[in-house]
């Protein structure tokens, strides 16, 4: 059985980088896909033997004014509602922020399954920030580096039983 995975989190944590890594070469097709709304980017992902649909909340980068928080909430809620699993991404180099806590609350109430990922965890610079992720009450933060392709086996291990 396949599933839909939504990548959610505040801007700049690396959601789109992870999306691109999971979608790989087929990214070019993404924009042509019918039914893709402007702000939620959708693609066919593969990770090991898993095949699934991945959603990236791509519209967030474009907003720089005070409406960001409301817009982020609405986009996140849509991504949550259209997915079976949410991959909530935080920045391991920064640690948990107030915005992360705000999103964790939404996800706890609304999402069917939440997986927490601490991105930018390559090297040692992310260790403390990733450990802070435990405080969100969403279980163990999976340490990944979307840019360098690290932690993908751990992500696979968590997703496989849910597939
Ligand atoms: P989004 O706003 O959440 O979609 O984040 P982006 O995917 O656009 O990435 C934001 C910035 O973080 C970019 O400069 C990326 O190159 C950088 N970035 C993404 N993943 C990683 C990572 O694993 N390690 C590091 N060091 N930087 C990353
Ligand atoms: Mg993005």
UniProtKB/TrEMBL annotation:
GO terms for molecular function: GTP binding. The keyword Repeat applies. Keywords: GTP-binding, Nucleotide-binding, Repeat, Ribosome biogenesis. GTP 1 binds at residues 9-16, 56-60, 119-122. GO terms for biological process: ribosome biogenesis. Residues 3-163 form the EngA-type G domain. GTPase that plays an essential role in the late steps of ribosome biogenesis. Associates with the 50S ribosomal subunit. Belongs to the TRAFAC class TrmE-Era-EngA-EngB-Septin-like GTPase superfamily. EngA (Der) GTPase family. This is GTPase Der. It comes from Paracoccus alkenifer.
């Amino acid at each position: 059985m396949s599933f839909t995975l939504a990548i959610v989190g505040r801007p700049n944590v690396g959601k789109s980088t992870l999306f691109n890594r999971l979608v790989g070469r087929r990214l070019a097709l993404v924009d042509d896909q019918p039914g893709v709304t402007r702000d939620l980017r959708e693609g066919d992902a593969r990770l090991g033997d898993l095949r699934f649909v991945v959603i990236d909340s791509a519209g967030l980068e474009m907003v720089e004014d005070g409406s960001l928080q409301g817009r982020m909430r609405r986009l996140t809620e849509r991504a949550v509602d259209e997915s079976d699993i949410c991959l909530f991404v935080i920045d391991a180099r920064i640690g948990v922020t107030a915005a992360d806590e705000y999103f964790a609350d939404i996800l706890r109430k609304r999402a069917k399954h939440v997986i927490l990922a601490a991105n930018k965890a390559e090297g040692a610079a992310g260790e403390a920030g990733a450990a802070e992720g435990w405080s969100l009450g969403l279980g163990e933060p999976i340490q990944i580096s979307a840019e360098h392709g690290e932690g993908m086996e751990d992500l696979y291990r968590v997703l496989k039983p849910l597939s």
